[in-house]
């Protein structure tokens, strides 16, 4: 367990290292009890460790969620690509047949389209006048 660190160390604190800042393992002179101070430090460390563990777990879950989303998006994009390729093939065949038909009939189909446009405009003008 995390609270058994002092038991693992045998209750011995490391000697001062000669640094100007105090070591967290050193017992300050104003501390009422050495073991209680070490236990308080261990408790604070454990709280911070639990907080960090929760944050790491949250980041892990977010990362897993992002990975799942990327995989699902990849599958959807692959399916869309297949659908577009199939549609492209169908449209290419349709336009090819339409061009073949237009080449066989010559310019006759063009005259039919011009006639239909003329009839359409005629009905529009008559409707506009009679309104």
UniProtKB/TrEMBL annotation:
Alphabetic keyword roster: Golgi apparatus, Membrane, Protein transport, Transmembrane, Transmembrane helix, Transport
Recorded coiled-coil stretches: none
Membrane topology recorded in Swiss-Prot or TrEMBL: Single-pass type IV membrane protein
Taxonomy, superkingdom: Eukaryota
Transmembrane spans: 109-129
Compartment annotation: Endomembrane system; Golgi apparatus membrane
GO biological process: one example: protein transport
Keyword Transmembrane in annotation: yes
Domain T-SNARE coiled-coil homology: 39-101
Region (Disordered): 1-26
GO cellular component labels: Golgi membrane
PANTHER family: GOLGI SNARE BET1-RELATED
The protein's name in its UniProt record: t-SNARE coiled-coil homology domain-containing protein
């Amino acid at each position: 367990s995390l609270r058994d660190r002092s038991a693992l160390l045998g209750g011995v604190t490391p000697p001062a290292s000669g640094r100007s800042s105090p070591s967290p393992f050193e017992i300050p002179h104003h501390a009422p009890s050495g073991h209680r101070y070490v236990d308080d430090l261990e408790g604070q460390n454990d709280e911070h460790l639990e907080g960090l563990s929760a944050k790491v777990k949250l980041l892990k879950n977010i990362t897993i969620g992002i990975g799942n989303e990327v995989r699902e998006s990849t599958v959807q994009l692959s399916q869309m690509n297949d659908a577009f390729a199939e549609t492209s093939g169908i449209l290419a065949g349709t336009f090819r047949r339409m061009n073949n038909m237009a080449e066989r009939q010559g310019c006759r189909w063009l005259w039919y389209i011009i006639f239909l446009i003329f009839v359409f405009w005629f009905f529009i003008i008559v409707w506009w006048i009679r309104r």
